Each structure stands twice: as structure tokens, then as C-alpha cells.
Amino acid sequence: xxxxxxxxxxxxxxxxxxxxxxxxxxxxxxxxxxxxxxxxxxxxxxxxxxxxxxxxxxxxxxxxxxxxxxxxxxxxx
Length: 77
Description:
3 strands; Multidrug-efflux Transporter Regulator, Chain: A, Domain 2; 4 helices; 3-stranded antiparallel β-sheet
């Protein structure tokens, strides 16, 4: 990889907040063992050895969508 390509990659990564499974679980209020049971969780964008990485904004958006969906399912009285 050229030095220019490496610099471009670094600049892109500085703009994107990446989370591992621990941060994803903390945001969603679940455990690593239960995360796989959640439906429609965004796919990780990459894997570095055994570590899956997600874009934090994708998880935040998923959480908001899930909360909105759950609100419509709650009984109103």
C-alpha cells in the first residue's frame, strides 16, 4: 500500500467512529452472548482477526429504529 493510500485510509478512519462488540452491546443494553439473537442488527463493516467492527452511527440508528418500533407495540392503557 502506498504512503498516499495509507494517509487517505487514516483520514477516512478519523471521520468514522468504530465500535467493537463490547461498545455495541453497551449501547443496545445487551450482552455479547445475546447480541446474536437480536434481529436485523447491522452487519459489522470489517473483521480484524476475531474482532468485528461496526460503524457507531449504524448502531445508533438501529437502536432508534428499534425504540420507535417498540413504542408502537406497547399497549396504551
